[in-house]
Amino acid sequence: MEIQINSIEEINQAAQAFVAAMGKRKVFAFYGKMGAGKTTFIKAVCQTLGVEDVINSPTFAIVNEYIDGQGQPIYHFDFYRIKTPQEVLDIGYEDYVYSGHVCFMEWPELVENLLPDDVVKVTIEENEDGSRTVRTEDFED
């Protein structure tokens, strides 16, 4: 699947398209350079899912928990500051990821060997004109 975001004004439409395609998938790993818009896109997706809390990157906390419009938790990870896989395991990573609840992960390349087999890999690229392209592999099933 590919979603084109030409301007920030289109991000909510893009988030709606993403949510519509999520199906029963629960774990999403977001790849992209610093400033590509991973946190901004995850924020829009969370809002589309009914989260009313303040949504920001859990850079220092490693994981933030939000509650969606159905009263279910959403876990938002940021592994940017992780030094070892053990740090991730120590925060209870497996409890979150295998909880059956939605998990969004930023900087998953730092914990690649810990990602579950059914993770959906999402790449966000900034294009020369400032637009963004959101691509997923293996999204449908």
What does this molecule look like?
This protein is 24% helix and 26% strand. It has a seven-stranded mixed β-sheet, with helices on one face. The chain starts with a strand and ends in a 5-residue tail after the last strand. The chain has helices at 11-22, 38-48, 85-90, 93-97; strands at 2-5, 27-31, 63-67, 73-78, 102-106, 120-126, 132-136. α1 (11-22) packs across α2 (38-48).
The number of E-state strands comes to 7
Termini gap: 12 Å
CATH architecture tag: 3-Layer(aba) Sandwich
Summed over residues and divided by their number, the pLDDT gives a mean of 92
As a percent range, the share of helical residues equals 10-25%
CATH superfamily caption: P-loop containing nucleotide triphosphate hydrolases
Strand percent estimate: 25-35%
| Uncertain ranges | none
Strands across the major sheet, in which order? 1-7-6-2-5-4-3
The arrangement of helices and strands along the chain is EHEHEEHHEEE
Radius of gyration computed on alpha carbons = 14 Å
Write the layout of secondary structure elements.
Elements: E1 2-5, H1 11-22, E2 27-31, H2 38-48, E3 63-67, E4 73-78, H3 85-90, H4 93-97, E5 102-106, E6 120-126, E7 132-136
Parallel strand pairs: 2-5, 2-6, 4-5
Antiparallel strand pairs: 1-7, 3-4, 6-7
Helix pairs in contact: 1-2
